[in-house]
Amino acid sequence: MSCKYANLTKVEIEKCILPFVPKNRRGFPSRFSMEDIFKCIVYKLKSGCQWQYLFVDIESVRPPFSWQTVYYFYRKWCRQHVFQNMFDVFVEVQRDYLDTEKLNLDGTHSLVKKSAQSAAYQHRKKGRTSNILVMTDGNGIPIACGDIISGNHNDQYKIVRQYATMIKQLNCKGICVENSIQNADKGFGSKALRRAIQRRNILPNIKENTRNRKSKKRGPSRFYHNDAYKTRFVNERCFAWIDGFRTLLVRYDKLDNSWLNWHFLAFTLILLKV
């Protein structure tokens, strides 16, 4: 794995990753190395291989266990919110280095190849997809995300609740977003979202959607800063980082919780290496 986001040193794993892994309270300690287990999970995230072919091309570790063991620990850590806790702590640690003066909101679709929760046909993608909303800072670093949404819904589906959830995540991490500029494309230009943004003392910088409009809209013009709006394209760089993890490019996971935790792990690796 030549990607810098997947190449973790032994020191990085021991100091930044293993403290989040819970230890057994009862019984004997595990005879498996948690460092090797985590390396295998990262390899699965990066390569996108099927679980049963996990050790076909792997080079960074010579594990004395099977792929079922790696899958067991991944599902166990998902239930224990290990990856979500990693992401929350890493964002909180780097909050002083984040550019929160400009926030960017956009969604990304992933093709679904098997039966899964929150998956439906998306005409633009010519297939069944799942969508997730991602909020990034001014440099394109992911700092919050929403829930998994079916692909047949647009980005404004339950957008007020999704946005409130992401802002709550930032507030819990001690990140102040008041007086920030919230960039979003034309697809987010709804009154409900604009009001939800303004209630939190944030400026909604959303370009007007002139589709099917024959005349200029009446009333005072809304706030729009063109130079700040152009910076929202750092989202595309973030999505390129996410697409670099092949497991997130095409969805094979059935459960939304498992699929969401893959995103938390990818965001954690980006924060660790960026």
Fold and architecture overview:
It contains 10 helices and 7 strands. The chain has 274 residues and is an alpha/beta fold. It folds into 2 domains: 10-80, no CATH class; 97-253, Nucleotidyltransferase, domain 5 (2-Layer Sandwich). Strands 1, 2, 3, 4, 5, 6 and 7 form a 7-stranded mixed beta sheet that branches. Helix 2 packs across helix 3 and helix 4 packs parallel to helix 10 (256-273). The protein starts with 9 loop residues before the first helix and ends with a helix.
Span of the ends, CA to CA:
17 Å
What's the rounded overall pLDDT mean? 86
Using the coordinates above, name the CATH class of the largest domain.
Answer: Alpha Beta
- Strand residue content: 15-25%
The CATH architecture classification of the largest domain is 2-Layer Sandwich
Number of strands: 7
Count of all domains: 2
N-to-C series of helices and strands: HHHHEEEEHEHEHHHEH
The portion of residues assigned to helices is 25-40%
Shape: globular
Q: What's the CATH H-level homologous superfamily of the largest domain?
A: Ribonuclease H-like superfamily/Ribonuclease H
Largest sheet: 7 strands, mixed
- Summing up helix and strand content along with how strands pair, one would put the structural category as alpha/beta
